[in-house]
Amino acid sequence: MMFLNILSAEFLKLKRSRITWITWLAFSIMPLIGAMFMWIVMEPDRASSLGLLGTKAQIAGVTATWSGYFALLLQTTGIGGMILVSVIAAFVFGREYSEGTAKNLLTLPVARSWFVIAKYIVVLTWFGFLTVSLVIEGTGIAWAMKLPGYSASILQSYTSDIFLEVLIAWLIVPPVAWIATLGRGYLAPLGFTIFMLILGNVFGATGWGKWFPWSIVPLFAGVAGPRVEVLAASSVFVLLLTFCAGTTATFLQIRYGDNTQ
Amino acid sequence: MILLLHKEGMMNSETVIATRNLIKHFGNVEAIRGINLNVQRGEVYGFLGRNGAGKTTTIRMLLGLIQPTSGVVILLGKSVRPGTQKVFKQVGSLVEAATAYPNLTVYENLYLQRKIIGCPSENISEILSLLHLQKYSNRPAGKLSQGNKQRLSLARALLHKPEVLILDEPISNLDPAGIIEIRTLLRELVDNRDVTIFMSSHILAEVAHIADRIGIVHEGLLIEEVEYSEFQQRARNYLDLIVSDRENAQSILQERLNLQKIERLNEKVLRIFDINDRAPEIAHLLVNSGFQLYEMTHGVEDLEAHFMELTGGVS
Fold first, then answer.
1. Which residues in chain B have their CB less than 8 angstroms from residue A17's CB?
2. Does position A58 have pLDDT exceeding 60, yes or no?
3. pTM of the model
4. A143, A199, B23, B167: least buried by Cβ within 10 Å?
């Protein structure tokens, strides 16, 4: 009961934050960008008049089909989603320090670990909601554009891949949370995320990507080379290890770390 | 440890807050160098110190926000460390600057706290009324004045009707009327609800108005702990003189009347301590020696003067 109260308090905090609208807006733009690419491919004459953008769309090998559109969505939500979920986590954890409310939370008569778990759930729920919204919007756009090649199995397959991608991105949230509690604010975790994304690109290109958590989503999305459709056991292990290590570090930091903010 | 302290008479059943050899180092900085506190049930303990003396660090250790390098903190008979939970059901706190979720209304900020602690919902309206925050109830906390933010933080600390209040600068940011109001409220809590208050402040006059006992912390050490009534009894009398040729006047008073405790307060004033009934004698000597005596004022040393003397005057 107490945990549910903490959880509902965390949801209320998120509901009243501008970040909810900003992240929703950011995620809503992705299907529209995909739609623009589809339109360029469907209208090659107009595409050529658009110069580089049209050329890039052709070079990327994008096909104006349900499958092509959702493959594009999978790619954009892969990278965009990783950034977005890290921004949400940095905000949810870092705000307590930036707004000076951590000292209030940490002197309440409840286990500090509950706050961490509640915040994880809030991040996952919000990220999940954004993804549902994105899939609905993407499906609507594909219908409206009358893209060829619809089949329920294609929609189902890509939708489940997008949700799996979201889950993978969420599994690498705990290190971001740890950096937010260690750095006591938003900036450190955002800096950390950017650095890890760069490293993720580097490792993705070297072939060690399946061992590096921040390369696994780009590999799965097909952004860092040929798409890895089924995660290797080593990748699953690395992701779970990252989740557990990050969570333990966050628990320890929030439990024993000095709060001098 | 707690049993040992009881056995050695360093704690009793009325001890609400106790620390023993509390030490905190931040790297090479010795912030707290061994503080022993004893706060008894139903008293207001004023914790005074200059900026950087160690007040907030001590309060953070009392609340389990930072880990002592060594030593113990005992709150309501329970040892406190980072992560301690249950004892905080009976403790309300305010640490340093008043803080709240800026996008949440005053009501919602209190509602969150109430949900997490699990106290009755009517406590919110009661505390809003007590701190005169009803009319701001639906205003986002980020749009409150500093004074009202401070009231909101106090409301948060008082919401669950705690037995102990640990307050760091509770009256900072309040206007004079607000200071009197909060002072009265805190005194009422002690007198009528048997609440114990440990409060730090840099507004010495306010501490003097409310505290039963005063601890002065300086450079990480508790250099004095005294009952305020005892302090008042032992406060020294003094005579402030505004006189021409101050240096020579001081010499003649020292030589002829053997007055040794004389301080030059500023460019004009000589302050003579422990004068007893010698004011007429002093005036007579100065006038007869050809000095112009412009003003003589009798006074009793206040907390501020005592504090400045203990902590080394104006830096």
1. 103
2. no
3. 0.84
4. A143
